[in-house]
Amino acid sequence: MKYGYFEDKNKEYIITNPKTPVKWINYVGTLNFGGFVDHTGGALICKGDPSLNRIVKYIQQMPSSDFKGETLYLRFRQRNGYKLFSPFFVPTLDQYDLYECHVGLGYTRIISEFYGIRTECTIFVPIDDIREIREVKITNKTGEELEIDAVSVVEYTHFDAVRQFNNADWVPQTMQSRCIQEEDGLLTLIQYAFMRRETNVNFFTSNHPISSFESDRKRFLGDNEYGTWSNPLSLQKKELGNYEAHRGDNIGALLHHLGSLKPGETKSFITQLGQEQSFEKARHGIEKYRNPEAVKKAYNELNGFWEEFLSRIQVETPDPAMNSMLNIHNPRQCFITKNWSRYLSYYQLGMGTRGIGFRDGSQDVMGVIDHIPEESKELLKRMMMVQRINGSAMHSFNPLTMEGSKGETDDWPDRPQYYGDDHLWIVLAVTTYLKETGDMEFLKEVIPYYKEKKESQLQESGTVLDHMKRALDFTRNDKGRHGLPHLGFADWNDTVNLRTGAESLFNAHLYGKDLLEMIELCNYLGDMAWVKSYQEEYDELKETFNRTSWDGEWYVRYFDPDGTPLGSHKNENGKIYINAQSWSLISGMALPERAEKALDSLNRLLNTAKGIKVSWPGFDGYDTTKGGITTYPPGAKENGGIFLHTNPWVVIAETIMGNGERAYEYYSQINPAAKNEIIDEYECEPYVYAQNILSNEHPQFGLGRNSWLTGTASWMYQAGTGFILGIRPDYNGLVIDPCIPKKWDGFKVTRKYKNAVYNIEVKNPKHMSKGVYRLKVDSREINGNVAPVFGDGKTHSIEAVMG
Ligand code: GLC
User: Cys staple from 723: which of 334, 403, 596, 655, with CB 3.0 to 4.6 Å?
Assistant: First the structure.
């Protein structure tokens, strides 16, 4: 069964059957204002923060058939009452003649036909704006004149998303709605929690006269709420109740009498849902966007933004699925993860303290630095603001309050209260930023450190370079019995929570990679004393690692405080872990013969046709000495599941080994575009990466979950563009270092870099996997494989011949 198809020329995926295995979503706007829209028109919208300033109530856990957040009803008269249906399929579930949900870049357009009525609804948030726009066009295709009414509906939540669900006394007493009558039958419904009446007012309005409205859910559904969303009883009456809610479950429902539509005739209207300090403050914008021309302009601007965004890197390889991902869907997902971190999706509920993750944000940034350098820099700065004076970092922060959170550590008071890897990610993210932009001044910017207890001392600050050095110092001084970095509460793998004193090879590798980055950076800056110091530390770490952590066929992953390894053939469960192999190469710490063996073992013991498992065999039973990993059954998530975030690291490791076949195989086997044919098994959106797929240790092998917000996006993008195609920035230019399948004749890449356009053509006449033997820059042959920095605003042609 298929539910849709890719339409690359319009940069869309088009869903043609609304009964997808789970809701498939798309994002509109940004964290400043926006959220997601599902393919049946439901939406979750917030402003600034989904936890503390949420606007729309959307309950992911309810069945797909339920009303979720927003919808549109249409109705026409029948002999006894009205025929009522939703052109979005949900919540009325009528039989459709046509259903298309166009998942576009920053917009969703639903086109449907029911009972001879065609509806086209485009949903988006204008750039840098504070409103969700729904432009609705309704066409009468029945062949007869027909009178049609349209009712747009939103259900509000209390701004504090958790309170909405854990308090049914205070919350409903505070929720209020008012109607502001304007000229010519226009009106705006405003809604707020009483304490925010003067500061945060939600508005819902249309550019079409509204004959009546409702703001109380109970009255809208009717019969003391024994009326349902699939058949709201108030919609059987000519007009709604015009009731301004003084409490209770607030909604906004706007009744548009569109009047009589002749055969073939189309009528349109535009609704806006937003939030401002007051209606008066919102009025100007409301009036502006009542004009279809303004909406069109905003829509074109949105398209223009994406055009420019995607133009930063465009590829032409022999693989259409890879092209589709690298040119459209993968960079879009990178933008979304950079915006929303792990905060708000169909699976991440965005409530409570989670916020923007330190390690997650650092990795997400790495996927978009070339596209949006300024925004990337802002996020890097914000993250450094939650780095502690000792160099370690808070696990996450709330973007509105900048309050840091310690993550899950509170549940385990006897374990370390920090994560061993968080702070280390910032070093890699900053050096990636520097290589891409050349903005070395950034290193001098002064950023305050985070203080958990705010009362006392003065705030301490340091330059960006200081923040990086402190991150490394923290780990340098935080080692265990083998001289390897401590695990802390957890490393990248959140769920392995060993007893205090445990050591982590992942932290060792990330630290090693950071040290390499710092050696390169300090070399570039000419700071040889630091080069020497970091080099000595790196050499010692590498020696310690190889002395202690080789298990015979692969590298181990952790040491318990008593020195017992985990990720060793000696273990019954968790004999081998993926990251211990891939990162031993990424960090440059694996000895050559071991590197090859480690990757072969990984291939033999962890690879499946649907992706590589994070570890094997899974734990089968809850065990507090191992921690969260044992809360999952074997084959799920971090307990031996296919945790996709780790897969691109193996792709990168294989390219380091020069193994283009395997790198490409690993890349392709998890390409979601290739899942379109087996989507009933996989279930998630085929146009984005999911976080995890159940592995062959689980009865539902192949089932994907937690799509969109995953580090897989950033790393697959980096692996695809920077390591398979091998085009990656360095301090002195653009490195051209492909590692491709031998059968490829070559490929092309257009990449913008430091204010110039690089038109790169790679030729592979001898059918090699790796190695550039000739590089021509604007027809002149140069030594090496680095295209220089031009910075001249011009287009340059680069020809690389492999061999
Ligand atoms: C989730 C977390 C991420 C973590 C990963 C593995 O994706 O957001 O921070 O690294 O799980 O545990």
Answer: 655
